[in-house]
Design brief:
Elements (H helix, E strand, L loop, with lengths): L2 E4 L31 H14 L6 E3 L6 H4 L5 H12 L3 E2 L1 E2 L2 E2 L3 H20 L5 E4 L13 E2 L6 H13 L4 E5 L6 H6 L6 E8 L22 E6 L5 H19 L3 E6 L16 H18 L4 E5 L8 H13 L22 H14 L13
Protein name: Acetylpolyamine aminohydrolase
Family: Belongs to the histone deacetylase family.
Length: 374
């Protein structure tokens, strides 16, 4: 497979300042490593170089998104605010959406990376592509940034694909541990975009991502939230993909698939409470790749979102990249023993959560209805 890889050194220069986990330091919070830190993604690059997989990838330079393209989703007033903060003192563009000096231009390049990725697969330059975008985007709403996200890279790229290539069926899968609230709002009334968010229930944002939020108007049934309970691991995620995502994709028949790839469901992430391993991310990618090959000639775009374990995110991302390009390295997951023998199975409360989604969405999707005799 020809797999494209998109990144720019500028992505690592987006400065979110000092902090402690996801909060600004001060008072009783001693300065520590801020969660959204460039090291996480820089180390993805380092591991790809160290193990040799980087040489197997097709390197593609991102371009900057234009102001018009950013306005496919964001309001002019919000864009001006981000630029003003970037040009002056920096600050928060909404809710935990830190803008540093020069962040506006870097955010344009991050969104441009997602747009470049869409162009690359639609024009057949590569079969699939991984864009190591930063700052991330899936929390950003039309008029404010949220949760480290400034411009919604994936939402803008999907709207771009509709406008430029006339696509009528785009599937967005968001497996970041946090609900993709910004992308949800971008397409809540749109029946041409099937948005599926698999996330830890009520982690962040704290009042969104309910299974019963199914869209409105023409988009009813095209918004799919799959809130899994804390502690869900490989088995629960794979069960979700097999019993919900695959049947929906078979019915929807997407022309392009975009993945909001947050590796924060990883078992060592400081901002998540899930137990997905590097191997699990690889198996999840195998399923998504199979769907893409079945329905859209393999047209598959990955855009990096969250993932805050500097040590573990690179190994999770490496497994994804190995599956995309069908090249196996000699890298073993050094943290695999960290599961401590925890059973990798679908527990009853996890199956209950999955079944609830199936029950809600079966009103809209024939493929989710029980088969005769079941």
């Amino acid at each position: 497979m020809r797999t494209g890889y998109i990144y720019d050194e500028s992505y690592f220069w987006h400065d979110t300042g000092t902090g402690t986990l996801f909060l600004p330091s001060g008072g009783y919070l001693e300065t520590d490593v801020f969660a959204e830190h460039p090291a996480t993604k820089r180390r993805v690059n380092n591991l790809l170089e160290r193990c040799g997989l980087m040489r197997e990838l097709h390197h593609i330079r991102p371009r900057k998104a234009t102001l018009e393209e950013i306005q496919y989703y964001h309001t002019p007033e919000y864009i001006k605010r981000v630029k003003y903060l970037s040009d002056t003192t920096g600050g928060d563009a909404g809710d935990h959406a830190i803008v540093g000096k020069g962040s506006y231009e870097i955010a344009l390049l991050s969104t441009g990376g997602a747009l470049t990725a869409v162009d690359s697969v639609m024009k057949g330059k590569v079969d699939n592509v991984y864009a190591l975008t930063r700052p991330p985007g899936h929390h950003a709403e039309s008029d404010k940034g949220i949760g480290f996200c400034l411009f919604n890279n994936v939402a803008i790229s999907a709207k771009y694909a509709k406008k430029k290539y006339g696509l009528e069926r785009i599937m967005i899968l968001d497996w970041d541990v946090h609900h993709g609230n910004g992308t949800e709002k971008a397409f809540y009334d749109d029946d041409e975009v099937l948005f599926i968010s698999i996330h830890e229930h009520l982690n962040f944002p704290t009042n969104s991502g309910y299974a019963t939020d199914t869209g409105e108007g023409n988009g009813e049934g095209y918004n799919v939230n799959i809130p899994l309970p804390p502690g869900s691991g490989n088995a629960a995620y794979l069960q979700t993909l097999e019993t919900i995502v695959k049947p929906m994709a078979d019915e929807f028949q997407p022309q392009l698939i975009i993945v909001s790839a947050g590796q924060d469901p990883g078992m060592f992430d400081p901002l998540g409470r899930m137990r997905v391993s590097a191997e699990g991310f690889g198996k999840m990618t195998e399923i998504i790749k199979e769907i893409a090959q079945k329905h859209c000639n393999g047209k598959l775009v990955f855009c990096h979102e969250g993932g805050y374990s500097n040590a573990y995110v690179p190994f999770c991302t490496l497994r994804i990249m190995e599956v995309l390009c069908e090249k196996q390295t000699d890298v073993e997951d050094p943290f695999a023993p960290g599961t401590n023998g925890y059973p990798d199975k679908v527990f009853e409360h996890e199956q209950d959560a999955i079944n609830k989604v199936i029950k809600v969405q079966s009103e809209f999707w024939q493929n989710l209805l029980p088969k005769v005799g079941q």
